[in-house]
Automatic annotation (TrEMBL):
GO terms for biological process: carbohydrate metabolic process. Belongs to the glycosyl hydrolase 16 family. The active site is at residues 204, 208. GO terms for molecular function: hydrolase activity, hydrolyzing O-glycosyl compounds. This is Beta-glucanase.
Length: 339
């Protein structure tokens, strides 16, 4: 039981403690709150990974824009390969990926359902700013038009367009004749992709255009969800004005990208981020959620933003088959005012 002496001592201790320490405790509490607020604020500006894909790269995180001219390549190759290279060969003992066979699809001939899938599903957990809508893929004798259109729904403000080539494709030459969509907020893409949905790690190879500056082509690749040495290449033309031929060679030793048959970029030697799994071939036109606007810009394209594709093809390594380069005619396959 406490005595009068202990009561008086306790009262004296509290009286002595309060003036000296209340201020100190207040300062410590304030500093703790500031630290918590700063940590939250520093995270709020970072787009969180969504789905099975990493967030699209920010401009500030990517390699500087590299000027390109027809007589010079990014990696200073001494010789620019001819448009038609002939059969592809593997390095000795290089692995072969399981892959569907060669094809060329002149898209004005239609989209046979046994070969193509027009995406039509929600993007509730994805990084896109809306759902894939079948009606936003239009077929004409010239090819495909992929549209992004406003919906009026603030939860999913845009309807997007995507077409997948059924089957999986590995090492070889991938080509497309396309004209990307112009307008801030739009992303036009030609890429291979596989990931956990298909029971594989996230592997991917991209050719992308951001509509706010269609004189720059963005080249990306992923292995197991980690990106490699991506690049942004400055082209000597506005890609949205006319159709051009875009391609990449995927080999065990690396990836090479081409525009109109000219080499513009290659992966570094001994790169550890090269894809190793065959994937689907996809074309798309989309816009992202708000956190991606620092990359592709705020949507500003009126009632419709349209990308045009007139051919896609795949030639496996070791083969020499007909491809988009054989049907490409420089200029515009689509009328400039396609309806």
């Amino acid at each position: 039981m406490a005595t009068d002496t202990t009561d008086r001592s306790l009262k004296k201790f509290l009286q002595d403690w309060q003036p000296r320490n209340v201020v100190a405790v207040g300062v410590l509490a304030f500093a703790f709150c500031v630290a918590i607020f700063s940590a939250i604020a520093s995270q709020s500006g970072k787009p969180a990974p969504t789905g099975n894909r990493l967030p699209a790269p920010r401009v500030a995180d990517m390699a500087p824009v590299v000027p390109w001219t027809p007589d010079r390549t990014v990696n200073k190759q001494k010789k620019i390969p001819a448009l038609r290279e002939g059969p592809y060969t593997l390095q000795p003992d290089a692995p072969l990926l399981e892959s569907d066979g060669a094809f060329i699809s002149v898209l004005g001939n239609g989209l046979p359902p046994e070969r193509f899938y027009i995406s039509e599903h929600s993007n509730d957990k994805g990084f896109q700013g809306g759902d894939w809508v079948r009606e936003n893929v239009s077929i004409s004798p010239d090819g495909l038009r992929l549209d992004v259109t406003p919906t009026g729904d603030p939860r999913k403000p845009y309807a997007l367009a995507e077409v997948q080539m059924l089957g999986t494709y590995g090492y070889g030459r991938y080509e497309t004749i396309m004209r990307p969509a112009k307008g801030s907020g739009l992303v036009s893409a030609f890429f291979t992709y596989t990931g956990p949905y298909f029971g594989k790690p996230h592997d991917e190879i991209d050719i992308e255009f951001v509509g706010k500056d269609t004189s720059i082509v963005e080249l990306n690749y992923f292995h197991n969800g980690k990106t490699g040495s991506s690049a942004r290449i400055k082209l000597p033309f506005d890609a949205s004005e006319k159709d051009h031929l875009y391609a990449f060679d995927w080999k065990p030793e690396g990836i090479s990208w081409y525009v109109d048959g000219k080499l513009i970029y290659q992966t570094p030697a001994n790169d550890t981020h090269l894809p190793e799994n065959p994937g689907r071939l996809v074309i798309s036109n989309w816009t992202g959620k708000k956190e991606l606007q620092q990359w592709h810009g705020a949507p500003d394209f009126g009632d419709r933003g349209s990308a045009y594709y007139s051919c896609i093809s795949f030639t496996p390594l070791g083969e020499n088959t007909r491809r988009c380069a054989d049907v490409f005619q420089p200029g515009s396959q689509f009328p400039a005012s396609s309806g």
